[in-house]
Write a structure and sequence with these properties.
Layout lengths: L28 E5 L1 H4 L26 H14 E3 L10 H9 L5 E5 L2 H4 L10 H18 L4 E4 L5 H8 L3 H7 L5 H4 L7 H26 L4 E3 L3 H4 L17 H16 L4
Protein name: Lysophospholipase L1-like esterase
InterPro entries: GDSL, PLB1, SGNH_hydro_sf
GO molecular function: phospholipase activity
């Protein structure tokens, strides 16, 4: 008697794990944006100090995002800073085009403060134009580098900047030179007109951050900081002692912490 014996079943091969959309340890970094990313007034008066940049700088005191991700030697070889002091969102498409040439795995974006810091609130960049230029920037990046990742920092809280910096007599004197007059002009004025002016600027900053959040959310390889830079409770220790507007070395280090936390966060 006998019967057909069943052939031994083969063990199913494990399915390969899908490649995650977000790489928490990218191998190269390019930075775009404005004077904050250039480290302006962090080291010397009226000058860029890219060594102290939160994004790509090599300063041990800052421990930049690039250094944290790539190591000091790796950051020196595989990170690039295309930010320009004074830049606004309208300048971002051009900066992004230059950054694309390096084929970075991660691009950091911090821009918007100069769009709000104009001579008067009426001169601020319209929200619609801000959105269009940001969308254009991400579109061109995505066309050239489909898998490049983007970290987007929120625009800082300019009204807190006013409330902190105005405690310094030196800060108020420097602001008279024309630093962010829409928010910082006549810093001791507390009348209704001054309050309305500052509130108008602050609302525009909040609108810009809403644009950054919404546009970034439409791109599966983009991470917005969730408003962390805007919400950070900085004080004068984080402000440049030369202009009480730009981040000091200490402030740059805090920005680096926020960026690293966002880039390396586990998300479903």
């Amino acid at each position: 008697m006998g019967g057909d014996s069943a052939a031994p079943s083969e063990s199913p091969k494990p399915s390969p794990k899908p490649t995650p959309l977000w790489d928490r340890s990218p191998g190269s970094v390019a930075a775009v944006g404005d004077s904050i990313t250039r480290g302006f007034d962090a080291c010397d008066v009226l000058s860029d100090c890219p060594e102290a940049s939160w994004a790509t700088g090599g300063s041990p005191e800052v421990d930049s995002l690039a250094v944290r991700l790539l190591g000091r030697a790796g950051a020196a070889q595989r990170s690039w800073n295309y930010a320009v002091s004074g830049a606004r969102m309208a300048d971002l498409p051009g900066q992004m085009a230059r950054a694309v040439g390096r084929k970075p795995q991660l691009v950091t974006v911090m821009v918007g403060a100069n769009d709000a810091c104009r001579a008067t609130p009426s001169a601020m960049t319209p929200v619609s134009a801000f959105r269009a230029d940001f969308e254009d920037s991400l579109r061109s990046l995505r066309k050239a580098l489909p898998k490049a990742q983007v970290f987007v920092a929120s625009v800082p809280n300019l009204k807190r900047l006013w409330s902190q910096g105005r405690t310094s007599p030196m800060g108020k004197q420097v602001w008279k030179l024309g630093i962010c007059p829409s928010m910082l002009g006549d810093p001791d004025a507390l009348d209704s007109a001054a309050a309305l002016r500052r509130d108008t600027v602050q609302k525009r900053v909040e609108d810009y951050n809403k644009v950054l959040r919404e546009v970034c959310a439409e791109d599966k390889r983009c991470r917005y900081d969730g408003g962390a830079v805007y919400d950070y409770r900085f004080d004068t220790a984080q402000l440049s002692r030369w202009d009480y507007f730009h981040p000091s070395v200490n402030g740059q280090a805090r920005l680096a912490e926020i960026a690293y936390r966002t880039v390396t966060a586990k998300r479903p």
